[in-house]
Write a structure and sequence with these properties.
2 domains, alpha+beta, 15 helices, Uridine Diphospho-n-acetylenolpyruvylglucosamine Reductase, domain 3, Vanillyl-alcohol Oxidase, Chain A, domain 3, 435 residues, single chain
């Protein structure tokens, strides 16, 4: 039995069969066969997720890499993509037509179905899922369903963040915008001042994110604004600019922190002082939103909390990191982003403007204790986890955290009466009686 792994290697899948259908009809027939035999089927995209949302153990795994077409509809500023289309390829196709997505996350190796299904986000505008105008999916009975605000609106609303349990998403139509450039300004600000000025940063800029290198006393404030100004010259060291030094060098330093944990604060403080400096640059939006493909392997947990609690929660997270030694050290940036509220039932930003706090660490040994402490803190702020990242919340928690939880669960049961899309993730989120 072939063993497949997630990008970070923390999830391993052992499917009894891997299917690569070429169209919806093949998927519908496969669903019917799996349902008849009483089995399960799990669609898996690029495998970037750290959570067990893609878990497959001796069941059927479905890949959509043969269903990855991209149709840019320039006149209506829309793009219709199949579920297996990769976000980076969608960006390139739009760019050729002088169009863009309004916002996108730092990483764009995900498939469209996986990106939206986990509620993946950038910073400054709502989830990309809110820009979906139409969808198609094959439900757990093999029925092909066409969704929009006027066609099955309740299912359409839920399927925009579908968690992989409503069906196989075969097609998504996104609303686009004219291509645009951004001015990025990076300011190195004292920790306390950055948190004190947070409200002002958000009010005065289109997109804002924060990076804090643990054990330093400053925060890197990234400010992005749309602009018509001339693009600045792209430096050969742009990847170095993004992460503070080359990926290979960064990986070597991470290895040093794991081998000699006591050096972690010194390494990160040196990294901060040597490589992170104020800067300004202008380029197209995708150049500045995305950080490239070669990112050192690490583990992530990320929680969305009410925006008004952001400063206090960031401060307390940093205090957890400072107080953790000698049990563990944190050797990766704390990332903070900001997402307006939406009306999608299982979006972590549903019903409230949100601050996403990302607790990342490049050590398997330190992951569990760091995320244990981080998750416990997030309880104080009614934190909702990113579905594609590590979390230990259960169905009891989610029933309290999500106002439309019961409605989504009812839709899930209607779409999948035989439970063929169930796995350990679905059981954790909706209870162990799933299916």
């Amino acid at each position: 039995m072939e063993i497949l792994k997630s990008w970070a290697g923390n999830q391993k899948w052992r499917p009894k069969a891997v299917h690569r259908p070429k169209d919806e009809q093949e998927i519908a027939e496969l669903v019917a066969r799996v349902a008849e035999e009483g089995g399960c089927l799990k669609p898996v995209g690029s495998g970037l997720s750290w959570s067990d949302i893609n878990e497959v153990e001796n069941e059927h795994l479905l890949r959509l890499d043969r269903m990855a077409s991209i149709d840019v509809q320039s006149d209506s500023k829309r793009v219709c993509v199949q579920g297996g289309a990769v976000m980076s390829e969608i960006q390139k196709a739009l760019e050729r037509q002088n169009l863009a997505l309004d916002n996108i996350g730092s990483i764009v190796t995900q498939t469209a179905a996986g990106y939206t299904g986990t509620g993946t986000h950038g910073s400054g505008t709502p989830l990309l899922s809110t820009f979906i105008e139409e969808m198609r999916l094959v439900d757990g009975t093999g029925r092909i369903r066409k969704l929009s605000r006027s066609k099955e609106p309740e299912l359409f609303s839920a399927a925009r963040v579908h968690l992989g349990c409503l069906g196989v998403v075969t097609e998504i139509t996104f609303k686009c915008t004219d291509a645009f450039d951004l001015e990025e300004r990076r300011e190195i600000v004292s920790f306390d001042r950055a948190l004190g000025d947070l409200e002002g940063y958000l009010a005065a800029n289109d997109y804002v994110k924060l990076w804090w290198l643990p054990y330093t006393d400053v925060i890197q404030v990234y400010l992005f604004n749309r602009t018509d100004e001339k693009r600045t010259t792209r430096r050969p060291t742009e990847l170095m600019d993004e992460w503070g030094l080359s990926t290979h060098s960064f990986s070597a330093l991470l290895l040093l922190t794991r081998m000699v944990p006591v050096l972690t604060p010194t390494v990160l403080r040196s990294l901060q002082s040597l490589y992170f400096t104020p800067r300004r640059r202008v380029n197209r939006s995708t150049r500045l939103f995305n950080i490239g493909k070669m990112i050192p392997i690490h583990n992530e947990s990320e929680y969305a909390i009410p925006l008004e609690k952001a400063a206090t929660a960031i401060d307390r997270t940093a205090q957890i990191v400072r107080d953790a030694a000698p049990e563990y050290r944190v050797n990766f940036p704390l990332e903070v982003r900001f997402v307006p509220g939406d009306d999608i039932p299982m979006s972590p930003a549903t019903g409230r403007d949100s601050c996403y706090v990302g607790a990342y660490v490049a050590s398997t040994q330190w992951t569990e204790p760091y995320h244990r402490d981080f998750e416990e803190l997030m309880r104080d702020y009614d934190g909702r986890p990113h579905w594609g990242k590590l979390f230990s919340r259960t169905s009891r928690d989610f029933a309290q955290l999500y106002p439309q939880y019961q409605q989504f669960d009812a839709i899930r049961r209607e779409c999948d009466p035989n439970g063929i899309f169930r796995n350990v993730f679905v059981e954790k989120v909706f209870g162990d009686t799933v299916g």
